[in-house]
Amino acid sequence: MTTMEVKDLTDLGFNKNEAKVYLSLVKFGKADAHQLIQDTKFHKNIVYDNLDKLMDKGLVSYVIEMKRRVFKLVSSNMIIEFFEEQERELKNRKKKARIIVKEIDETLKKVKYPQEATIYRGTNGIRSFYNESLEDDYVVFGAPQESLQIMGETFWQNFNTKRIAKKIKVKMIFNSNIRSYGDKIKNKFTEIRYFDKEFEPLTETHIQKDKVGIIVWTEEPILFLIQDKSVSDSYLKFFEDMWKTTTK
Fold first, then answer.
1. Which of 6, 149, 189, 190 has minimal Cβ neighbours within 10 Å of its Cβ?
2. Is 87 inside any structural domain?
3. Is residue 101 part of a domain?
4. CATH number of the domain that 172 lies in?
5. What angle do CA 212, 128, 157 make, to 5 degrees?
């Protein structure tokens, strides 16, 4: 008597009906479709359809006995072989994906964009923006307490670990109410200064190459991304002027 359950097989990638038919066959050792239909209480079309899927995966075969098909399990090692084949296919897909991504990136580098504005909404949008920023050095000003509360310190810790691993440098001007956090993350790739308490913007501005991202840290944060070299140059000059007046 098997102790396997449907969930054990669905965790391996079987769909629910495949798992039930497979477990029924495990219980009998070998069985015809009528036995499996009675045991699973599935319509015959569902049983036959899932037997076909299991045979396609190389996990089930059949023999002819008294002019009827009797289904049986192939060696249980076929489950491992099936997933090893899936892994090989996945590696090939990843390899192709890397080639395609490289071609797309090379094409995009040759395209000249006019001024462009993009909006990111919610925490997932902010995550996407920051993951996309892991390319070049950048500067930030106006990170408020809400940025830590909404995204969580774990997100920022993981992001900064990736950034530092890529040797991306950043200069940031934080609001003074997160000084304890800022002092904790300072390192040779992370320069931080602070606004005076009298001036603590509720927005965060991210300047990188020809892009300016302005994040409004409401309950559902929203980010406005402007891609324009003249705009980013103007914001960068503003940042450099502020940097001289802020405290370490």
1. 149
2. no
3. no
4. 3.30.870.10
5. 95
Half-sphere exposure of residue 174: CA atoms within 13 angstroms, side-chain side: 21
Confidence (pLDDT) at 201: 66
The answer to whether 137 and 168 are in contact (CB under 8 A) is: yes
pLDDT of residue 1: 43
Residue spans of the chain under pLDDT 50: 1
Q: What is the 3-state secondary structure (H, E, C) of 102-150?
A: HHHHHHHHHCCCCCEEEEEEHHHHHHHHHHHCCCCCEEEEEECHHHHHH
Residue 66 in domain: yes
What per-residue confidence (pLDDT) applies to 236?
Answer: 92
Give residue-wise pLDDT tens across range 59-91. 888 888 888 888 888 776 777 777 777 788 888
- Has residue 94 been placed in a domain? no
What local confidence, expressed as pLDDT, does residue 98 receive? Answer: 84
Residue type, 143: A
Per-residue pLDDT reduced to its tens digit, 131-148: 888 889 999 988 778 888
Torsion over CA: 152, 158, 160, 162 (sign): negative
Q: Are residues 241 and 120 in the same domain?
A: yes
Sheet arrangement for strand 138-143: 116-121, 222-227, 211-216, 203-208, 138-143, 170-174, 190-194
32-38 contacts at long range (C-beta below 8 A, 24 or more positions apart):
32/68, 32/69, 32/70, 32/71, 33/69, 33/71, 36/71
141 in the same domain as 67 = no
Range of the domain at 133: 115-245
CA-CA-CA-CA torsion sign (215, 134, 159, 101): positive
**Residue 112 pLDDT:** 58
> Which CATH number belongs to the domain containing residue 35 in this structure?
1.10.10.10
Q: Do both 19 and 131 map to the same domain?
A: no
